[in-house]
Amino acid sequence: MENYICQTCGVQHVASEGPPPSCLICQDERQYIGWGGQQWTTLAEMREAGYRNRIRNVDPGLEAIDTRPRFAIGQRALLVQTPAGNFLWDCISYVDGETVDRINELGGLAGISVSHPHFYGVMIEWSHAFGGVPVHIPAADRQWVVRPDPAIRWYEGTQDVSPGLTLVQCGGHFEGSAVLHWAAGADGQGALLTGDSISVVQDRRYVTFMRSYPNYIPLSAAAIRGILDSLRPYRFDRIYGGWWGSDVRENARAAVERSAERYVRQISG
Ligand SMILES: [Zn+2]
Ligand SMILES: [Zn+2]
Q1: What is the DSSP string of the chain?
Q2: Ligand 1 centre and the CA of 118: distance in Å?
Q3: d(CA 179, CA 48)
Q4: Ligand nearest to the CA of 12
């Protein structure tokens, strides 16, 4: 039995005798089947092929982790360091002993959560590598969890995972799309870690919100308002997006508000 990893979305599936017939996540209209057809790999094959993780400091108390060479969607995971332990936001498709050693040098890992199914990666491998730490997933996205595991803790709405770290299910991209509010981030002014739930665009004074990024399917005005409403209670000045450098460094709340206004104006005609 083997836990196969889809080469297009990078999500690892429940153990099976041979490669699964298809990837549930890539069959959805928000993703796509790779142009070469459905292809699979495994962690062992990736290790043999020379994949490695790279850990780089972003800001005080925040490390970014991505896989080299780039694999699947190519997102980064973010490690938030707090006095109560480290928390992994979003996940990638690779983990090895070297990564675990390095994270342990940084204080280990107390919990994991992921913005949405495209970034699940090998989250269960990460949990097991650190003694089965909890993986917090919104119950609304239960249907997309293709590798169930006792480490998964379902939540609805919001969830405090550590003092000053709160998961906020803002919806939009997926029903369970979420962001992580880090109260001590941005030198105490607050930060949001957003993945694809709120995506930082090339003009980093703006963000966007989509049902599908690769297939360019927009969201409704009601969905955009839902995202804004869910963020209202939280103070934040910075946004850390899903890729290296995709950050709104300052005035992030204003960036979200003017981006939402521009978006709704365009889709409303
Ligand atoms: Zn896939
Ligand atoms: Zn996505």
Answers
A1: -B--EETTT-PBPPPBSS--S--HHHHSTTS---TT---EE-HHHHHHHT-EEEEEEEETTEEEEEEES--TT---EEEEEETTEEEEES--S---HHHHHHHHHTT---EEE-SSGGG-TTHHHHHHHTTS--EEEEGGGGGG-SS--TTEEEE-SEEEEETTEEEEE--SSSTT-EEEEETTHHHHT-EEEEETTSEE-SSTT-EE-EEETTTTEEPPHHHHHHHHHHHTT---SEEEESSTT-EE-S-HHHHHHHHHHHHHHHHH-
A2: 8
A3: 34
A4: 1
- Calculate how far, in angstroms, residue 136's C-alpha sits from the geometric centre of ligand 1: 21
pLDDT digits (tens, 9 = 90+) for 107-139: 999 999 999 999 999 999 999 999 999 999 999
Residue-wise pLDDT for 184-223, tens only, equals 999 999 999 999 999 999 999 999 999 999 999 999 999 9
Ligand nearest to the CA of 33: 1
C-alpha–C-alpha distance, residues 30 and 35, integer Å = 15
> Over pLDDT 90: what percentage of the chain?
100
CA 62 – CA 184 distance, rounded (Å): 11
Cβ neighbours of residue 144 under 8 Å, at least 6 residues apart? 24, 25, 117, 120, 174, 176
For the chain, give the number of residues.
269
Distance 2 CA to ligand 1 centre (A): 16
pTM of the full structure: 0.97
For residue 199, which ligand has an atom nearest its CA? 2
Which ligand places an atom closest to the C-alpha of 75? 2
